[in-house]
Design brief:
Strand content: 5-15%
Number of domains: 1
Number of strands: 5
Oligomer: single chain
Strand order of the largest sheet: 1-2-4-3-5
Distance between the termini: 60 Å
Shape: globular
Order of helices and strands: HHHHHEHHEHEEE
Largest sheet: 5 strands, mixed
Radius of gyration: 18 Å
Number of helices: 8
CATH topology: Muramoyl-pentapeptide Carboxypeptidase, domain 2
CATH architecture: 2-Layer Sandwich
Structural class: alpha+beta
Length: about 200
Amino acid sequence: MCKGIKGLLLAGVLFAAPLQADERDLWQFAQWTGDHATRDFREMLVDARLYGVVPLYQLLRSASDWRLCSAQPFAVPPRSNWPAVQSTLQLLKLLGEERVLSSYEVVSAYRDPQLNRCAGGAKDSAHTRAFAVDLLLPAWADPNPLCQFWQRYGKPWNMGLGRYPSGRIHIDTAGYRTWGGDFSAGSSFCQPLAPGAAR
């Protein structure tokens, strides 16, 4: 009976689940975490009151090209990165509370340097040296409130904001900067406010 119900669930007969941007779901995460220690990382998130800001299975997704690179689908950041994890999650928490980001899916977070190279990430990527998230917004979502937040509060948050040709949004707290499709500030959908501009 369980097998039959599982089959119906997977077929979408019992529940019409929303389409996911990434195949690495909670079920796959549960399989992976059985062989990989995540307890200390979870405890750090709980102690910092940041557990649940992003579902853990999304927060630990490695690069989307993990299969092509023969890597793990999920990765726990090294302890040396955990302060940056907290900083980026505090920012995401604020963005949610302020309704700047109300709905999104994290599709890539920490990447070890080897996977980052294979996946074509920047040499000094914040995904490897600090902590960054690449996320997808729903098709109906307006990214302009995110831009306005970056213009007003990006400097004190040390916030990096980028958007790739795929539509993915990159957020980190590893340096105040922005970029767009050609990885330069000039192609960003979000430009710094001119001196004296109304805020």
